Amino acid sequence: MSEEQPSTEVQPPKIEFPCPDYPIKVVGKNADDFQSFVVDVMRVHVPDLDESRITIQDSKKGTFRSIRMFITATGEEQLKNLHEELIASDRVHIVI
Known about the structure:
With about 100 residues, the chain is α+β, with helices and mostly antiparallel strands.
């Protein structure tokens, strides 16, 4: 008889909320109003968004723009709703 081995599957660490300095990166098509679009969506879910901590980087050819920011994540539902609203836009390609 063989012994059953315990599962070796690694579980991702659980986030403890509130989670200050939670990083979010949004990548989409580069346009003049892309940053304001992202910030407007973020403000719905993160009213205290610190815009001074936002960094922007354009792709080498300038086709895409990434916007990085840090938020205080208040819960899984907030992060899920934020991700869903951003990704629902045809302007956003990736939310990390």
